[in-house]
């Protein structure tokens, strides 16, 4: 269905899908952190800052996201988009909420840690696919990546790899949790998102189509109590 025909209900639905995707993604991040088998490069950096300077992991995610949004806005010479701002704020808040849950604990044995780690990566991949499929804007780190790609002429893969290598090195200097999970994340997250994104887009498309039928009285089914404003009940 075309953008023009989506209507007001799609506007609110898309934001609901966007926030749901962030909730899912943040849960995956929290699982990786609790597994204590290595985290994603950006989370290694956030955890290193938390260990050295206090606050919370989610708070550092928000602070670094705010710095990145500021740098991106300066490079683009434009105000930050709402999607990037909400991504920065909500993911940090959701991470802290999940980490505060008393039942989300680190397993005592290695197999349990690996299961939690792999589950976290898979869940994060589907969360990323879901929030991207909502089409409400990229997150702060992805926005910076796209701007740097435009400014330098480098390929997206090269920019992304360079950014993550820098933050991973900084996180390692801050004694962040670099482990097998970090390597596993870097190797698998691309293929996982490549698999999850089409599924999430198809799911969102079905929601759009259903919402369009509900808004269009000529496409939805006629119910026994429908009125046309003039005639009697449909019989």
UniProtKB/TrEMBL annotation:
InterPro entries noted in UniProt: YczE/YyaS-like
Any Pfam family matching the protein: DUF6198
Protein name: YitT family protein
Phylogenetic placement of the source organism: Bacteria, Bacillati, Bacillota, Bacilli, Bacillales
Chain segments annotated as transmembrane: 12-33, 53-75, 82-101, 113-134
PANTHER family: INTEGRAL MEMBRANE PROTEIN (PTHR40078:SF1), INTEGRAL MEMBRANE PROTEIN-RELATED (PTHR40078)
Leader sequence residues: none
Species in which this protein is naturally found: Guptibacillus hwajinpoensis
Keywords: Membrane, Transmembrane, Transmembrane helix
């Amino acid at each position: 269905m075309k953008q023009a025909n989506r209507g007001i209900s799609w506007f609110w639905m898309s934001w609901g899908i966007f926030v749901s995707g962030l909730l899912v993604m943040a849960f995956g991040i929290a699982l990786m952190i609790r597994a204590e088998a290595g985290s994603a490069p950006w989370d290694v950096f956030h955890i290193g800052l938390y260990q050295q300077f206090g606050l919370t992991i989610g708070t550092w995610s928000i602070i670094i996201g705010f710095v990145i949004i500021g740098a991106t806005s300066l490079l683009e010479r434009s105000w930050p988009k709402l999607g990037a701002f909400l991504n920065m704020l909500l993911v940090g808040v959701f991470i802290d909420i999940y980490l505060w849950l008393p039942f989300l604990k680190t397993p005592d044995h290695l197999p349990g840690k690996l299961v939690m780690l792999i589950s976290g990566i898979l869940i994060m991949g589907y969360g990323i696919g879901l929030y991207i499929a909502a089409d409400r804007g990229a997150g702060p780190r992805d926005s910076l990546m796209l701007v740097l790609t435009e400014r330098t002429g480098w390929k997206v893969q090269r920019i992304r790899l360079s950014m993550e290598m820098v933050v991973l090195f900084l996180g390692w200097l801050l004694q962040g949790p670099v482990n097998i999970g970090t390597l596993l994340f870097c190797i698998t997250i691309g293929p996982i998102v490549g698999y999850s994104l089409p599924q999430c887009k198809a799911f969102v498309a079905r929601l759009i189509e259903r919402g369009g039928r509900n808004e269009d009285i000529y496409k939805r089914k006629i119910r026994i109590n429908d009125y046309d404003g003039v005639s009697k009940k449909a019989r």
